[in-house]
Each structure stands twice: as structure tokens, then as C-alpha cells.
Automatic annotation (TrEMBL), chain A:
Tagged with keyword Ion transport: no
Upper classification of the organism: Eukaryota, Metazoa, Chordata, Craniata, Vertebrata
Organism: Coilia grayii (Gray's grenadier anchovy)
Annotated family: Belongs to the CENP-N/CHL4 family.
InterPro entries referenced in this protein's UniProt entry, alphabetically: CENP-NAC/CAD_complex, Chl4/mis15/CENP-N
UniProt key word Nucleus: yes
Protein name, UniProt field: Centromere protein N
Domain of life: Eukaryota
From TrEMBL, chain B:
Subcellular location: Chromosome, Centromere; Nucleus
Main location per the UniProt record: nucleus
Coiled coil stretches, renumbered: none
Name under which the protein is recorded: Centromere protein L
Pfam family name, one: CENP-L
PANTHER family in the cross-refs: CENTROMERE PROTEIN L (PTHR31740:SF2)
Length: 349, 350
């Protein structure tokens, strides 16, 4: 076996937790059933990996097969790097008629035309998404399989999700995508996160949304000993209202797991309390605000329902779900209308 | 702790504003010392005003090579009670004693994990002059632990495995004067290196000088002070951004970081801070400065930052974490250490 292939195989194996190894190898199908049964998963990782490499050598597997293993693992566990969302724009008339085979051919043809020594692998996932693994090389070097770029696209939608893309190859990939999907251009959707599913669900709106409703929810009967029934009733009503607002803004139940949201504020100073320097001037008070949490939407929802955030929910925060973005540049509207407090969103592409 | 809290609260009300430290600093210069607090040891109180040091003066006070040692690392803070019979003339002996102590501990297996069995520790004690600002402050003591192989080859440079220093900057004079003369007060202990070594050094000090170490956690108010003080040095040391990090107790916890543009932060500070005496900083100004930033945030996001805790303040040159971790740059050193000295004295067990 080529040392490069062996090296890549070992690296991929090290990445996969032992608990998931058996399942991943079964999906891979390049080891026979008897070969798989000969593996002892309770052995130490090091011996187990050496045994797998031995079996692969026996089967004469090449770089093509090994990179497929990487792809299978990534498709099942797309949480290892930051995923950035992009949006295709200016669809041509026949954009909706693009199907898998023509996309595959077109994409491969365009990208290999733009750059030599590139290794492309395309697979369809069970949920109709197309997964593309690209190992980049250049005129003088072979494709580097250690740092592949992954691209996920849902046909007939404008959404593309990319991870591990260097700025050097960005233009090439964008061009190949635009041509293969029959669109005019592609732009950054200002949304990124470590979980592919969260980014996708947020952008494509696949999560439990609660829609605004003016109907009051029926109150449950409670066996409390109230100090004053009206006060208790009012408290319950307020709490329920906050809960409702929180759900409307950030979703219900399990929400997409987003890690952060960033706002570049270039707005006039609103700190007040007699500080005139910034109030009089048109100069913005420049601040970058970052929200971080293990699950940002769940945290924000809790902030609203617990009262740390006051109602109404700031449009800047609800825009995360409404616009499916987590990167914003906020400026004041330039025209001096009567409403001085409104802000405008300017996307940063 | 309770004493401190109540004082912080009362500090925000203007009635007590100009009574405490400002007077003390001024009267010190004119040699008349009014009676300050009765029973100083039982009731040290937190300052409501601090004096900025002149940045140019700092450069000349401390030897640049020694300054480099102080600003290189991120330090973990502890507080130390006054040390009995600590003598600056005995530093060489202390170096030997501590080396021997570490060797002994290593033979018992405690410190071996840090250096390995084939290494020995060499400790050096030295003083750093210029950090202390008044004649009552004891000189800063710097300790470095090197490890070197038992059979060192000619080219083997000793490796620094641990460093630490004890300092005292503008400690309350009435506190220092209340101590018996055989005690040396160096209340702030900064350490950087393996925890096990920190522990051993501390226990050596405790045995040798009959003192005791404790953790030096800071309060959000201390962090607010530092945010304001560091911003006030913008003309001496340009800040690109002033970073403030709050943690809100939501489920899961939410971290909010505001990185305010350095020039904007300074302009805001400048307009918050009345210009009557540029070198005095009052707690009301600090509170107002932070309040303005929090309000600016609230007007955009409708979230009360006051529901959370200010956990970290940082500029390019320095950072401080509420858990008692600090990194400093030369310009900020005197003011920061003065504040930490005060914190350490306030947290002394009585």
C-alpha cells in the first residue's frame, strides 16, 4: 500500500470513535463480511487500526476507496469543522430542472477545467442532499486528501453549505457551483456554525416554529394558595406571554444548535445619561458584540422567558431565526426620518 | 467580603465620595497624617477614588529587562498574609533553602512529575526595584525556578519551569503601620507555572515565614475599575478594542462579549470623566462609564447585562479574569498592582 494511502487511512481511523467504527465500516462495504467479523473491537485502538490497515492492504484498496471512508464518516457526523452557508442567486430559467446526473457531470467538468490535479467525489445522501468531497492540488502538486473541502447542496434549492474551504479555492468552487446549478451568482448567507444540521435547519426553516398568535392560551387550573388571585393570575399571564414570545422568536422544543452570533454595531451611541459627545455627533460608536453559548437559541429563549431580556424581543436577535443568519452588520438608517431609533441591516459579503 | 460589598454600594452614593483615599494620598505628601480609621486591621475599606500614575515615570522606574519578566506571563493571583522575619539581606540563603526543600519534596515524589527524575531545580530570589511606589511599600521579590539536568552538558541552558513574584504597591499606610516591625507585607503573590510547584513554593513560604496563602478572587467592581483605568491610559498606550465579557445565568449559560473600539471607548470615558483633575478617577465615573456601555447594549438587544456577571476585561496588552488571573503591560502595571494590593489586604484573614 502506498504510504500516503496508509497514512490517510490511519488518520481517518483515528478520527472515528471506536463506538462508531463498526457501523462506518459496514457502510463503507470495502471489507468483506468475514473480514469485518474477524475484527475485535475490544482490542486496543492501535492494534485494531493496524488490523484494519492490513485487511485493506489485502484487498488492494487505493486512495479512492480510502477517501470514500472519510466521506462516509463526515456525512454521518458533520460536526468536525465550521460550516458556512451560501446562497445561490439569479436562477436561470432551467435551474429547477437540474438533476443529479447532469449536476455531477457539469460540476466535475467545470471544476477540472478550472484547476488541474483536483480529486472530486460526489455522493447522494438519504435525505436527497448531494455531498461533494474535494481534495485540492495545483499544477505541481497532487491533491491533498488530508484537508478536503466538503460541500453540501440540496438540488432545486438555492442553499449550499461549505466547510474547510481556503480562500485560494473559493472562487474556483463558486464558479463551478454556479455553472453546474445554472445560477447567476453565489453569495455568503452570513450564517455559520459547527453543526451542519443546525445551520441547514436554521436556513431552510426545518425546526419547530411557533407562529405569533393573538389568542390567549387557556389557563390551567392550579392548586395554589394565592395571596391575591388577581396578582397570581397576572403573574401567570405575564410568564406565559414571555414564554410565548420566546418560542415565537427562537423556536420550540429542541432548537438548532448554533454556537455564536456576531453583530458589528456601527450605530450612534445610545448609552445616554447625559453623555453628549456621542449623542450630538453623527459618528458611530463602534462595537462588536458576540453572543456565545453551547446552544445559542436555547440560551436566548431562556433569557426572554426568564425576563433577563425584556419584551419585545429585539429584532436584532429574532433575525437569527427569521433571516437564518448569525453574522450582522448594523448601521443607522441614513435618512433622518422621524423614527431615529430604527436600524438597518447591511449584509457583509 | 460583606464589609467590602457594603462599601462598594455606599461608594456609589455621592455623600462619601471624597473622604477616603484621595485625602490619604494628598496628606501623605504633606506629612501630616490624620487619624483615619479606628481599628484599621478590623476594617480596611475599599477606595472610591484612585490616582493614575504617570506613564513616563513607569518606564524609568523599573529596569526594562526586569519589566519584561513581569509582563511576559499570565499570572495567577493569591494573597499572602504579612511575612514574619523576611529579610532582604537573606535572599541568597532563601534561594538555597527553597532549592533544598524542592529537592527533598522531589525525592518524596511530589515534584518529580514536573521536572523528571534526572533534573534538579535551581531557585533564584531577586528584587525588582521601582515597582514599589511609596517608602512604606516593601520591594518586590521575584522568584524563578529553573530545571537543569543533574549531569548538565556545557550547552544545556537551564529551563525556566516556574516563576512568581510578591509585591506591594501603595498599600494603605495605616495598615502597614499597624504591623509589628518584624513583619514584611507583600500581599499579592503572582505565579506562573505548574500548580504543584506553586503549591510547594507556597508551603515553603508558610513554613519559613509563618504566613498563609489564599486565593485572590476579584469582584465585578474590581474589573470595572480596571476597564476604566486601562481605558484612561489610551493616550499613553493605544487600545484597539476594549473587550468586556459578561456571563448571563441562562440555561445553557450565555456569554456576551462587547469589543468597543479603543478610540470610542476613550472618548466615552473622557466625556464620563470630569476633567477637574485628570489623574483622579472616582468610582461614580467608573460606574457611569460601564453603565453607558451596558445601556448602549440594552438599547440594541433589550437584554439586561446587569442580570449577568462581568467576568473578563481585556485590551491588547492586558487582561484580567474574575477568577484571579491577570496579564499586564508596563503602562498599566502600577495602577493594576495598586488595585490588587488593596484587594489582597481587604481579603486578609484577621
Amino acid at each position: 500500500m502506498d504510504p500516503a494511502v496508509r497514512n490517510l487511512l490511519l488518520r481517518i481511523l483515528r478520527k472515528i470513535p471506536t463506538g462508531k467504527l463498526e457501523e462506518t465500516l459496514t457502510k463503507w462495504t470495502h471489507l468483506s463480511r468475514t473480514q469485518q467479523q474477524s475484527l475485535n473491537y475490544s482490542q486496543s485502538k492501535w492494534i485494531l487500526h493496524e488490523n484494519i490497515v492490513y485487511l485493506c492492504e489485502e484487498n488492494g484498496l487505493t486512495m479512492k476507496h480510502v477517501s470514500e471512508l472519510d466521506m462516509i464518516y463526515c456525512m454521518e457526523n458533520p460536526t468536525s469543522a465550521t460550516w458556512r452557508a451560501c446562497q445561490l442567486t439569479d436562477a436561470e430559467d432551467d435551474a429547477s430542472s437540474v438533476e443529479l446526473i447532469s449536476f455531477k457531470e457539469q460540476f466535475k467538468a467545470h471544476l477540472s477545467e478550472l484547476i488541474r490535479n483536483v480529486s472530486i467525489k460526489i455522493k447522494k445522501h438519504d435525505d436527497e442532499s448531494i455531498w461533494i468531497r474535494i481534495a485540492w492540488g495545483d499544477h505541481f502538486s497532487k491533491p491533498n486528501h488530508l484537508k478536503p473541502t466538503y460541500v453540501v447542496h440540496y438540488l432545486q434549492t438555492p442553499y449550499v453549505f461549505i466547510c474547510n474551504l481556503s480562500s485560494k479555492n473559493k472562487l474556483l468552487l463558486h464558479q463551478a457551483l454556479v455553472l453546474a446549478t445554472k445560477h447567476g451568482s453565489i453569495k455568503d448567507a452570513n450564517l455559520s456554525g459547527r453543526s451542519f444540521h443546525a445551520v441547514r435547519d436554521l436556513l431552510m426553516g426545518h425546526y419547530n416554529k411557533t407562529f405569533p398568535t393573538s389568542h390567549s392560551r387557556p389557563l390551567k387550573e392550579r392548586n395554589l394558595s394565592p395571596t391575591h388571585p388577581n396578582i397570581v393570575k397576572e403573574h401567570i399571564e405575564q410568564a406565559e406571554k414571555r414564554q410565548q414570545l420566546a418560542r415565537e422568536a427562537f423556536g420550540e422544543g429542541t432548537v438548532p444548535k448554533l454556537e455564536r452570533a456576531t453583530y458589528t454595531l456601527e450605530t450612534r451611541f445610545r448609552g445616554g445619561s447625559g453623555i453628549d459627545t456621542f449623542i450630538d455627533s453623527e459618528r458611530p460608536f463602534k462595537t462588536v458584540v458576540t453572543f456565545e453559548s453551547k446552544s445559542l437559541l436555547a440560551s436566548l429563549r431562556h433569557c426572554v422567558s426568564s425576563g433577563m431580556a425584556e419584551s419585545p424581543v429585539s429584532p436584532l436577535l429574532s433575525s437569527i431565526t427569521q433571516k437564518g443568519r448569525n453574522y450582522f452588520v448594523i448601521t443607522d438608517k441614513t435618512n433622518k426620518g422621524p423614527d431615529m431609533t430604527t436600524q438597518s441591516f447591511r449584509s457583509n459579503v | 467580603m460583606d464589609v467590602r460589598r457594603s462599601d462598594v454600594d455606599s461608594a456609589t452614593t455621592p455623600t462619601r465620595q471624597r473622604q477616603s483615599w484621595r485625602n490619604s494620598v494628598r496628606t501623605l505628601n504633606t506629612t501630616t497624617r490624620p487619624l483615619f480609621y479606628s481599628g484599621v486591621l478590623t476594617a480596611p475599606r475599599v477606595s472610591t477614588v484612585r490616582r493614575r500614575s504617570n506613564a513616563h515615570q513607569i518606564d524609568n522606574d523599573v529596569d526594562p529587562n526586569q519589566m519584561a519578566l513581569l509582563v511576559k506571563e499570565k499570572w495567577e493571583l493569591s494573597r499572602v498574609t504579612p511575612m514574619y522575619n523576611f529579610r532582604y539581606t537573606e535572599l541568597k540563603a532563601y534561594s538555597k533553602n527553597l532549592s533544598a526543600f524542592l529537592l527533598e519534596e522531589k525525592q518524596q515524589g511530589t515534584a518529580a512529575a514536573v521536572a523528571g527524575y534526572d533534573k534538579v531545580f535551581a531557585v533564584t530570589f531577586s528584587t525588582i526595584s521601582g515597582v514599589a511606589k511609596t517608602k512604606d511599600d516593601a520591594e518586590t521579590v521575584f522568584i524563578q525556578i529553573n530545571s537543569k539536568p543533574v549531569f548538565a552538558a556545557a550547552g544545556d541552558a537551564p529551563k525556566v519551569v516556574w516563576s512568581g513574584w510578591l509585591t506591594c504597591v501603595r498599600a494603605a499606610p495605616q495598615y502597614l503601620q499597624s504591623l509589628p516591625p518584624e513583619f514584611v507585607c507583600l500581599p499579592v503573590f503572582c505565579s506562573s507555572g505548574a500548580q504543584s510547584l506553586t503549591f510547594l513554593v507556597q508551603s515553603w513560604f508558610e513554613r519559613t515565614f509563618d504566613c498563609s496563602f489564599g486565593s485572590l478572587d476579584l469582584s465585578p467592581t474590581d474589573l470595572q475599575w480596571l476597564a476604566a483605568i486601562w481605558t484612561s491610559y489610551h493616550n499613553e498606550r493605544k487600545i484597539r478594542s476594549l473587550k468586556l465579557k459578561w456571563t448571563l445565568p441562562s440555561e445553557p449559560p450565555l456569554d456576551v462579549t462587547m469589543a468597543v473600539d479603543g478610540q470610542d471607548a476613550w472618548d466615552l470615558w473622557d466625556s464620563t470623566h470630569q476633567q477637574e483633575d485628570a489623574n483622579d478617577i472616582y468610582i461614580e465615573h467608573v460606574k457611569r462609564f460601564l453603565n453607558c456601555i451596558e445601556t448602549h447594549f440594552y438599547r440594541h438587544f433589550n437584554i439586561h447585562l446587569s442580570a449577568g456577571v462581568l467576568k473578563r476585561v481585556a485590551t491588547e496588552g492586558a487582561s484580567v479574569h474574575i477568577d484571579g488571573k491577570v496579564k499586564i503591560c508596563p503602562e498599566y502595571l502600577p495602577s493594576t498592582m495598586e488595585l490588587l494590593t488593596e484587594c489582597a489586604i481587604l481579603r486578609m484573614p484577621l
